[in-house]
Amino acid sequence: MKYENIYYGCPHCGKSSRTSKIDELIAQDEPALKTAILDGEFFDCSCEHCYEVSQVEYSFYYIDKDQGVTIYLYAGKNDGNQEPFSDIYEEGKIYRMVGSLDELREKILIFDAGLNDKIVEAVKMLMVYRYNTEHDDKAVQSIFFKKATDEALQFNMSFTDDTYTEAIAPMGLYGEALMTNPYKLNYREVKGDYIIDNQWIRETVIINRMVNEGRLPRTEQ
Ligand SMILES: [Zn+2]
After folding, report:
1. Of the candidates 112, 141, 160, which is a domain's last residue?
2. Ligand 1 centroid to residue 50 C-alpha, Å
3. Ligand 1 center from residue 72 Cα (angstroms)
4. N or C terminus: which one in the chain shows less Cβ crowding within 10 Å?
5. pLDDT digits (tens, 9 = 90+) for 122-148
6. Across the chain, where does the E strand assignment appear?
7. Same structural domain, 108 and 126
8. Is 90 in the same domain as 143?
9. What's the CA-to-centroid distance between 8 and ligand 1, angstroms?
10. What's the whole-model pTM score?
11. How far is the CA of 54 from the centre of ligand 1 (A)?
């Protein structure tokens, strides 16, 4: 892990303050930093002058050596690193790209729970669809995995009217998706398929449906 000093303009007092950033965070070596991610405080910096806390975001790698998982968090849409895994890619390991601390936190929680994030995205899509068809007054804005118990997957769901709730999916839904694979997902890792999010699941489902209906040629994976 490499530390580097960076300077940022404090939004509270306007002065330049110093903080340190890291290139890669190995979860097994830095449990306190992993906890800071899970608590949503990883990017919090205290100003050297006024001590006010603000968020200073930057790109870094989160690595779980035991699970063979590497997640690249890109801060901002154009951090210039389009191929973050080209030098480190190894067959059989899991690589993901996320665009926010919330998304990184969710991936860590999913992998730590021993779940497949592609199936979790499918379950999330079903939950959103079900909620939006049953309710006219508001729509789901975001849904994040929270935790798994023996019986259920728990999610935090937020709505267009700024309210939120906890949503529960029975574990059977996950097991069924795993067994029957209704959306014809490729549960194996595919080189280049690094962003597994709600857009990925929607596009995958639409493309697979078009293939099944003969409107797109079938490709071997
Ligand atoms: Zn300040």
Report:
1. 112
2. 4
3. 29
4. C
5. 999 999 999 999 988 899 999 999 999
6. 3-9, 16-22, 24-26, 44-46, 53-55, 60-64, 69-73, 94-98, 140-148, 152-159, 164-170
7. no
8. no
9. 10
10. 0.91
11. 9
